């Protein structure tokens, strides 16, 4: 059976936790579409195009992974891509309530689409994009939290923003 899965998120920026989920889902599903949500948060640090570009470079070696962005409802995007699975990662029990609500709501919107929850790898359980940005803003070390590509782009953009 060919299984197409969508892994949606803000990815502002992508972290090692996100990459862990992408890599593992690429081994479970025939095709994984990493989908960057547009217009979700007005105060996003990276533009959707920047986030897509980073994710494309980070997943270039994974043959069955593609990266794109989407607007509007996630279930509409998934349907258009003929995907019946949504992948989400949870790091801790504190993530559960939000994921539970979203999975139920998405299923209410489209009963053909199921959510598969993956536990984020233990090593990545404390990483969040917001924490990464905060540490980086104050010049802290983020080497264990994001891939080198994201670290360099993040610091470069922060430097540019501070220069303004
Ligand atoms: O990485 P995030 O911010 O936790 O991802 C949340 C995301 C993008 C998956 C969610 O907000 C979403 O699906 N937004 C698209 C709009 C939508 O379909 N909303 C209803 C979800 S119940």
Descriptive labels:
Rossmann fold; globular; 164 residues; single chain; binds 4'-phosphopantetheine
Describe the structure.
A five-stranded parallel beta sheet has the order 3-2-1-4-5, sandwiched between helices. It has one domain (4-162): Rossmann fold (3-Layer(aba) Sandwich), CATH 3.40.50.620. The model has no long low-confidence stretch (mean pLDDT 95). The protein has helices at residues 16-28, 48-58, 74-80, 93-109, 129-137, 148-163; strands at 4-9, 31-37, 65-70, 85-90, 114-119. By secondary structure, the protein is α/β, with parallel strands linked by helices. Helix 2 (48-58) links the parallel strand 2 and strand 3. It starts with a strand and ends with a helix. It binds 4'-phosphopantetheine. The site of 4'-phosphopantetheine (PNS) has 10 residues, from strand 1 and helix 4.
Briefly summarize what is shown.
With 164 residues, this protein is of the alpha/beta class.
Terminal-residue CA separation? 53 Å
CATH architecture call: 3-Layer(aba) Sandwich
Number of strands: 5
Largest sheet: 5 strands, parallel
The CATH homologous superfamily corresponds to HUPs
Molecular shape: globular
- Strand pairing plus helix content: what structural class? alpha/beta
CATH topology: Rossmann fold
Order of helix and strand elements from N to C terminus: EHEHEHEHEHH
Number of domains: 1
| Low-confidence parts | none
How many helices in DSSP terms?
A: 6
Strand content is 15-25%
Strand arrangement within the widest β-sheet reads 3-2-1-4-5
Q: Roughly how much helix do the residues carry, as a percent range?
A: 40-55%
CATH class group: Alpha Beta
Q: What is the alpha-carbon Rg in Å?
A: 16 Å
Task: Tell me, rounded to a whole number, the average pLDDT.
Answer: 95
Ligands in the structure? 4'-phosphopantetheine
């Amino acid at each position: 059976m060919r299984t197409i899965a969508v892994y949606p998120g803000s990815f502002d920026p992508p972290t090692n936790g996100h990459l862990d989920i992408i890599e593992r889902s690429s081994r479970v599903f025939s095709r994984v579409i990493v989908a960057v949500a547009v217009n979700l948060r007005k105060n996003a640090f990276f533009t959707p195009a920047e986030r897509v570009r980073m994710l494309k470079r980070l997943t270039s070696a994974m043959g069955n992974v593609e990266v794109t962005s989407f607007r509007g409802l996630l279930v509409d995007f998934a349907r258009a891509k003929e995907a019946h699975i949504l992948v989400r990662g949870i790091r801790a029990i504190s993530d559960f309530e939000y994921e539970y609500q979203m999975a139920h709501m998405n299923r209410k919107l489209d009963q053909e689409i199921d959510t598969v929850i993956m536990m984020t790898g233990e090593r990545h359980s404390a990483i969040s994009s917001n924490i990464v940005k905060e540490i980086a803003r104050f010049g802290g070390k983020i080497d264990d939290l994001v891939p080198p590509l994201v670290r360099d782009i993040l610091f470069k953009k922060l430097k540019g923003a501070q220069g303004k």
